């Protein structure tokens, strides 16, 4: 997320760790709270790196407040949805990897939008950090993350993988890979590439039909190119 700034400004390793600790672990709310950085470096960071790439966060809580849907926008004005769900001892966040989706499943409202854009690593992480900041006020934190929002994760593999690396890195968010699930409609070449990364996360494949004929009717774009017998 911050690699270009850190490299261009020759930020020393211990300063990098201070940034990661404050942003991801202490869950600061603005660059002004990065007080262990020198003021001149902090001001330069404020000028060059937006604290959040997404804007206009609007919450839609359920009546019991156990579920909170958040609608936000990219700077281009494209919509992005994410959801926080409370269930017994879990707090799960469902995040998007795209605004819209190119897969075009017949039953999916997001698919009818088409693809607006694939989200950057920063935009993916913004969804997670929004909820982390919200939960900080009650002394809670996210326990599980699912890539099951808008978009097909395997068609934005670079930024999805980068975000997973940030989540599981012990120097960043230190989340167990087993608490992360990536859901895909089943693009076989990208699935094989993802599996080679051996990231240790859970994988959910959305078949949506017990046979190829029905699957092609419901999910024509992906099903014809990635038949069930090859997925099995």
Automatic annotation (TrEMBL):
It comes from the Bacteria. Its cofactor is [4Fe-4S] cluster. One of its GO terms (biological process) is tRNA methylation. Keywords: 4Fe-4S, Iron, Iron-sulfur, Metal-binding, Methyltransferase, S-adenosyl-L-methionine, Transferase. The keyword Phosphoprotein does not apply. Residues 87-232 form the Radical SAM core domain. One of its GO terms (molecular function) is methyltransferase activity. Pfam families: Radical_SAM. It comes from candidate division WS6 bacterium GW2011_GWC1_36_11. The lineage of its organism: Bacteria, Candidatus Dojkabacteria. This is Putative dual-specificity RNA methyltransferase RlmN.
């Amino acid at each position: 997320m911050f690699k270009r700034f850190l490299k261009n400004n020759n930020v020393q390793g211990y300063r990098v760790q201070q940034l990661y600790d404050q942003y991801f672990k202490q869950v600061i709310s603005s660059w002004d709270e990065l007080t262990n950085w020198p003021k001149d470096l902090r001001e330069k960071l404020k000028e060059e790196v937006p604290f959040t790439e997404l804007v206009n966060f609007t919450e839609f809580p359920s009546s019991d407040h156990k579920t909170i849907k958040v609608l936000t926008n990219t700077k281009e004005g494209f919509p992005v949805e994410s959801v926080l769900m409370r269930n017994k001892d879990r707090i799960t966040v469902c995040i998007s990897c795209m605004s819209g989706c190119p897969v075009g499943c017949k039953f999916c409202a997001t698919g009818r939008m088409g693809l607006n854009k694939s989200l950057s690593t920063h935009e993916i992480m913004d969804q997670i950090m929004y909820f982390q900041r919200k939960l900080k006020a009650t002394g809670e934190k996210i326990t599980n993350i699912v890539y099951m929002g808008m978009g097909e994760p395997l068609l934005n593999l670079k930024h999805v993988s980068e975000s997973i690396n940030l989540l599981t890195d012990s120097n960043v968010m230190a989340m167990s890979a087993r608490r992360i699930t990536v859901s895909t409609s089943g693009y076989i070449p990208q699935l094989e590439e993802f599996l080679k990364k051996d990231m240790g996360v859970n994988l959910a494949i959305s078949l949506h039909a017990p046979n190829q004929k029905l699957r092609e009717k419901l999910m024509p774009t992906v099903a014809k190119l990635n038949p069930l017998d090859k997925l099995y």
